[in-house]
Design a protein that fits this description.
globular, 18% strand, alpha/beta, 10 helices, Metallo-beta-lactamase, Chain A, disordered C terminus
Length: 321
């Protein structure tokens, strides 16, 4: 973890947030909802070492209220690879998330990081601080579609499926009695949202759903705790990308050329120029193009990471010049 700032704080009555620094690649957040004699964990972390450190930080609460349930908000490894160390807690996720988890097992990222060629160098630049070797993936014990309500020691926690958006099966966890929502990667605060699945309209609808809720505290999947202003900022970014990519698709522009063009526009924008990981625009434009044209073929994941790195280096684009 090095010098990365890790914090664990109570954000509302019995609702806690575990935050990993600026929330860059792989540095995700998690949450703990404490009820009477039992608690619920929202997400695990990217490797076993990080997850064990988080569980140690939560001991003051979980000693009296052991974790009985773990909710995985989606299938990305930085929100579920730590499942192996949560003991006999029941793990819950959407059906789509449970299916998607098998697509990128920890062994695959371990192999990519260990590659001794250009691919390994590329992936270590994103994920070199994490330890994927030896992780045995634990999949959900229980799945749901739509909405379900859980009882956590007398407290209601509502799980709402809002995907496909960031991934195929995103869910958020709402604690009504505390006015708290744990969003998973439906919110990146300070970093650029990345649309692996889409459509962007679903993600915008998820933001609108949260804006209509009686919540004061919003715990994102990455970045600092926020409120509804953070939700609005993410919605505005996604709406901007959808609009700009759609216009370039209509003009017949290649998707990567469109991404580089929009990256330049973002670099000059007062609203979005300070977002980290701005190279994710290339993945986001691909999502728009696939929605507009079901025959559009996006490049494989290795090429997508190459393109993100190229945009952030400024290769062929003037963003952040």
């Amino acid at each position: 973890m090095g010098d990365r700032e890790i914090s664990y704080t109570e954000v509302a009555d019995g609702c806690h947030a575990y935050l990993q620094g600026d929330g860059g690649w792989g540095w995700s957040n998690a949450g703990l909802v404490v009820g009477d004699g039992v608690s619920l964990l929202v997400d695990t972390l990217f490797d076993l070492r990080l997850t064990e450190a988080m569980l140690d930080a939560m001991r003051d609460q979980t000693r009296a209220a052991p974790i009985g349930t773990v909710v995985n908000t989606h299938a990305n490894g930085d929100h579920c690879y730590g499942n192996a160390v949560v003991g006999d807690a029941e793990i819950i996720a959407t059906t789509a998330t449970a299916t998607e988890m098998s697509d990128v097992p920890p062994a695959l990222l371990a192999a990519l990081n260990d590659d001794d060629g250009a691919v390994g160098e590329l992936f270590r630049s994103f994920f070199g601080e994490f330890e994927f070797d030896g992780i045995e993936q634990r999949l959900p014990d229980r799945t749901f579609d739509g909405r379900i309500e859980l009882d956590v020691g007398g407290r209601a926690v509502e799980l709402i499926e809002v995907g496909p958006a960031h991934t195929a099966g995103d869910a958020i966890a709402v604690v009504p009695d505390a006015g708290v929502v744990y969003t998973g990667d439906i919110l990146f605060i300070g970093g650029t949202p990345i649309v692996w699945a889409g459509p962007l309209s679903n993600w915008v609808a998820a933001c609108d759903l949260m804006l209509g809720m009686d919540v004061d505290t919003v715990v994102p999947g990455h970045g600092p705790v926020t409120d509804k202003t953070g939700v609005i900022a993410v919605r505005d970014y996604l709406s901007f990308v959808d609009r700009e990519a759609t216009a370039r698709h209509a003009d017949g522009m290649d998707a990567f050329d469109a991404a580089r063009d929009i990256a330049s526009q973002i670099g000059a924008s007062e609203d979005f120029s300070q977002l980290g990981e701005f190279g994710r625009i290339t993945v986001n434009v691909e999502a728009v193009y696939r929605q507009l044209d079901p025959q559009h073929q996006s490049p494989d994941v290795v090429e997508q990471f190459r393109r993100m790195a190229r945009i952030e280096r400024g290769d062929g684009a003037s963003a952040r010049a």
